[in-house]
Amino acid sequence: MQDGRRKASAVNALERTPEERMAALDKAMEARRKRQAVKEQLRNGSATLVELLDSDDEAVRKMRIVDALMSIPYIGKGKTERIMEEACISEKKRVGGLGKRQREYLLERFG
């Protein structure tokens, strides 16, 4: 099923006009900029993980949890791996895809 979605999106990408492709590239670049800004806010303490988890922004919801945790001061690779394991969170999980218990664990730990 996932392969079917990939093929469909590849076909759609080929059928796009140059203007549509440019608009999609601009949208992707803007999303990357937003995620980078959020990581910087986590680094300098002007945002918290709780605020990140409560965000309705699509770009933020598509951010990987591992990237968010690694952006928090004093949390490196080892602590991130431990937290992810304790919360049963896959390294590929994104903010918007967290389960109820995973989300509650992170809120309790960082809230």
CATH class term: Mainly Alpha
Strand content: under 5%
**What is the fold named in CATH at topology level?**
Helicase, Ruva Protein, domain 3
Secondary-structure arrangement, i.e. CATH architecture: Orthogonal Bundle
User: Main beta sheet: strand number and arrangement?
Assistant: none
Nearest-integer average pLDDT: 89
Structural class: mainly alpha
The oligomeric state is single chain
Unreliable parts:
none
What is the H-and-E element order? HHHHHHH
Range of helix content: over 70%
Q: Report Rg.
A: 16 Å
Give a quick precis of the structure.
The chain has one domain (2-110): Helicase, Ruva Protein, domain 3.
Written description of the protein model:
- This protein has one domain (about 1-110): Helicase, Ruva Protein, domain 3.
- The chain has helices at about 1-15, 20-45, 50-55, 60, 65-70, 75-85, 100-110.
- Helix content is about 70%, strand content about 0%.
- The chain has about 110 residues and is mostly helical.
